[in-house]
Design a protein that fits this description.
By secondary structure, the protein is of the alpha+beta class. The protein has one domain: Gamma-glutamyltranspeptidase, small (S) subunit (Glutamine Phosphoribosylpyrophosphate, subunit 1, domain 1, 4-Layer Sandwich). The N and C termini lie far apart (52 Å).
């Protein structure tokens, strides 16, 4: 267990370093660009997204009579352009949807899949694991994108406006261009791989190799052509036409680590509608995505473990409150490393992990007086049956989340990603391809160990994405939220839920509240709560101070209004009417 604790600590250190480098580079206001809570108030509808252009487009779709799913499609297509480092049609996503009229909650899985040729030794060289960034860049890391199939499935069930109409704003932006934002510029400036690979090099960089400056208008006629084809032909234009051929050619002829995706892999991709996973917390019902993401399970586990503690009394200024949240998330992370994987391939004990008895047993390990230190996963029957060992996967925090409530009370929470910033760095037909296959665990395979999240043919890698909805005791939807952040997503959402439920904060204040995150023994806290460092260390934590490039976007529905909160660490806004 000590070796695993060490690897998690190293992961945290690297993750925080990435976070600091990203935020320091892009923020004109300071390390996080945090200038206070960013909120919005509306009566009829609300969109909270990571970029003002995308949020405005989503709100316009709702104003035109579109549904929450219609707005989600338009927002995603625009984010592909204005926030290409985080998500796009070359990646994957998870969506949770609430149909108010039918009183029906469901989730849509658009996670990428590995090619049929993929084996557990995919990222090994001489039976040694590749360095993570070595594996990320190039064709080997590209999974079959799932976003468009997922969006099409959701639109057929819950869309109101014509599919093609939802593409108009993104097509216009692709043709007319948009101005490079400070955040995008900072990430382009810091990326050493993207500037070396065409056509992304020419699109994002000047001839001398420097990033195109803030305010430069980027036009993308290739992407406009791609969008027109998909608007006319549906997702089949992506999965069964020339675009699919272009993806195969780009991946298999990549200048770095050519991949093995085939036309059949792309044609055979399917999105999956899955039931939500739900659990109680202080009279509320918290619901989210099930496997292959740990998002829903992890949040239900953590909140269930915390329920026996009086967090409301402790308050947001309490080091003890932060300590308790850290301990719960540490136990969640230990379980994630053993049990979570693609449920179509590996039996995931979802019911066991979120059962009241199991959560109470795990909660009983937590003490308000002392940290657990190194922790192990709980023991469920499948662990012994399959001889599973913990296997961390080094997800990186380059993702996006948006929350939407339409004028009929329907809602969408969608977390969407190309995994690392700018994904594999391979660009085709105007969009970037993901590097999601590096979310598989592969270092343990080199040691001959059995891990649930190992690479496999047609398999979906484990995720942490956690689009979440919360319902009151009366069954009414009250909250929609989620965040990017790689493996820190569950701690980000847990902190925000505690802030809104226990500490009665608005979505904006809850999103702005500082984080404390731990994956192993090491803990990172944000500067605004640096005064807690001695108290946390006295409780047994190894504490460092660092920033987190979260993108928490939350909505709360009250009796009188719809309240939105955008994370001040990024460029997002809340827009509604």
């Amino acid at each position: 267990m000590k070796l695993i604790g060490l690897s998690l600590s190293v992961l945290l250190a690297g993750w925080v370093a990435v976070a600091q480098a990203q935020d320091d580079a892009v923020s004109p206001e300071g390390a996080t660009g945090r200038t206070g809570a960013k909120g919005g108030r509306a009566k009829s509808y609300m969109v909270v997204a990571a970029n003002p252009i995308a949020a405005q487009v989503g709100a316009q779709i709702l104003k035109s009579g579109g549904s929450a799913v219609d707005a989600a499609i338009a927002v995603q297509l625009v984010l592909n352009e204005v926030e290409p480092q985080s998500s796009g049609i070359g990646g994957g996503a998870f969506m949770i949807h609430w149909d108010k009229k039918a009183q029906a909650l469901t989730t849509f899985d658009g996670r990428e899949t590995a090619p049929a040729a993929a084996t557990e030794k995919r990222f090994l060289e001489d039976n040694k694991p590749m360095g993570h960034m070595t594996a990320v860049v190039g064709g080997l890391s590209v999974g079959v994108p799932g976003v468009l199939r997922m969006l099409e499935m959701a639109h057929k069930k819950h869309g109101k406006l014509p599919w093609a109409k939802l593409f108009d704003p993104a097509i216009r932006i692709a043709e007319e261009g948009f101005e490079i934002s400070p955040r995008l510029y900072g990430l382009l400036s810091g990326d050493q791989a993207l500037r070396k690979i065409e056509p992304a090099k020419s699109y994002f960089y000047l001839p001398d190799g420097t990033a195109k400056p803030v305010g430069t208008r980027l036009k993308n006629p290739e992407f406009a052509k791609t969008l027109r084809a998909i608007a006319k032909g549906g997702a089949d234009a992506f999965y069964r036409g020339p675009i699919a051929d272009d993806i195969v050619r780009t991946v298999t002829a990549a200048p770095i680590h050519p991949g093995d995706i085939t036309r059949a892999d792309i044609e055979n991709y399917r999105a999956i509608e899955r039931p939500a996973v739900c659990g109680p917390y202080r009279g509320y019902k918290i619901c989210g995505m099930g496997p292959p993401t740990d998002g829903g399970i992890g949040i239900i586990q953590a909140m269930g473990m915390l329920e026996r503690f009086d967090l409301a009394h402790l308050g947001p200024q309490s080091a003890t409150a932060y300590h308790l949240v850290l301990e719960a998330n540490r136990l969640v992370f230990a379980d994630r490393a053993v049990y979570l994987a693609d449920p179509e391939v590996v039996p995931v004990p979802t019911e066991g992990l979120i059962s009241r008895a199991y959560i109470d047993q795990r909660s009983g390990l937590i003490s308000a007086e002392r940290s657990l230190g190194d922790v192990q996963a709980g023991t469920l029957p499948i662990r012994k049956a399959m001889n599973l060992v913990p296997a961390p996967s080094p997800e990186l925090p380059s993702t996006s989340h948006f929350s939407i409530v339409d004028h009929n009370g329907n809602a969408v929470g969608m977390t969407t990603s190309v995994e690392n910033s700018f994904g594999s760095r391979l660009m085709v037909d105007g969009f970037l391809l993901d590097n999601t296959l590096t979310d598989f665990s592969y270092g343990d395979v080199a040691r001959g160990e059995t891990v649930a999240n190992r690479v496999g043919p047609n398999k979906r890698p484990r995720s942490s994405m956690a689009p979440t909805m919360v319902f009151g005791a009366n069954g009414k939807l009250e909250m929609v939220l989620g965040s990017p952040g790689g493996p820190a997503i569950v701690p980000f959402v847990v902190k925000t839920l505690v802030a809104m439920i226990d500490w009665k904060m608005s979505p904006a204040d809850a999103a702005a509240l500082p984080y404390a995150v731990s994956f192993g023994r090491a803990v990172s806290i944000e500067p605004p709560i640096s005064s807690m460092k001695p108290a946390l260390e006295a409780l047994g934590h190894q504490v460092r101070i660092g920033e987190f490039p979260s993108g928490m976007h939350a909505i709360r529905i009250t009796r009188d209004a719809i309240l939105g909160g955008a994370d001040p660490r990024r460029e997002g806004v809340a827009v509604g009417q």
